[in-house]
Predict the structure.
Amino acid sequence: MNCNIFQISIVVDDYDKAIAFYTEKLNFDLIEDTVLSPVKRWVRVKPKGLTNFALLLAKAKNEEEHSRIGNQTGGRVFLFMHTDDLDRDHKNLLANNIKIVREPTVEEFGKVLVFADCFGNLWDLIQPNKKQ
């Protein structure tokens, strides 16, 4: 099997809140916002520079889905994102009042911090060592 993961869903409670967070605070690109029905949209965002991956912002439609908002992985880090400048991005997170769960540390693989998105999902932001 020769495949790529090109998209992952993230359950949200409000499309516009999610779009604003990801595009205005994390500087992601909005690549699609298609109305499918009066209550459903197909909303995709992606980190700048990526051409082969997107987050699908999926609005919760029932009690079970609502219970997963912000905790899709049982409290573990959900998403991992590489950066070329962790210090710059850390300053951006702070300037946008994004919750830092674990301050930057230097690990064997590079610099890393953990932040929470506006729904509570945990993200690792990693600046890998040059050798990786």
